[in-house]
Amino acid sequence: MTKISQLSQILYKQNSIPPGKNRRELMIVDMQKLNTQKIHCFNCTGTCCTYSANSMQITPIEAFEIILSLEVTNENLLEIKTKLLQNIKDYRLDHEIFLGKKNISHLRKTYTCPFFTPGSKGCTIKKDLKPYGCLGFNPRIENDNGGLCTSNTEILEVRQSQFRDLELWANNYLKKEFNLDWEKCEIPKAVLLLLEKMF
Asked: Does the global pTM surpass 0.70?
């Protein structure tokens, strides 16, 4: 049994965390509803996925589910890690800018997601395993091209309240199991940090 399948067993079977698709169902249904109104991302240049607007940060469980989507194996591990490292370097995500003691935070940097492919393909992460923030951020009018895209915060809040305790447990489990010292970080960093601990 691989490390990924062992972790899946612990998270989803032993601890009854619903699969990614179940935890994203509200957002997927909302996207499908918009699609029937011809409001979708298919013709967009990827504004929310590129450095022009993207500063998405994810939790450990979201990073793990991206790893599931990538179907990481010993054969493709080096290629994936190299791609993530290059993305981190290109957008200087390895250099944090501290905003001062008063703010107690770091500057959120923009970057192009390493899993975004320009053109009709767009995001290469399976819909059932996408980060919640990505899945919930959609256009509100036809042929918007990223101009008026927003998050449906109502649906995101309902989703979060439904799974808060289970996801808190999952995030704490992953943090403890792999000695992770972050709550959220940029997609390439989160996935790479978890991969490096797992393999």
From this structure: yes
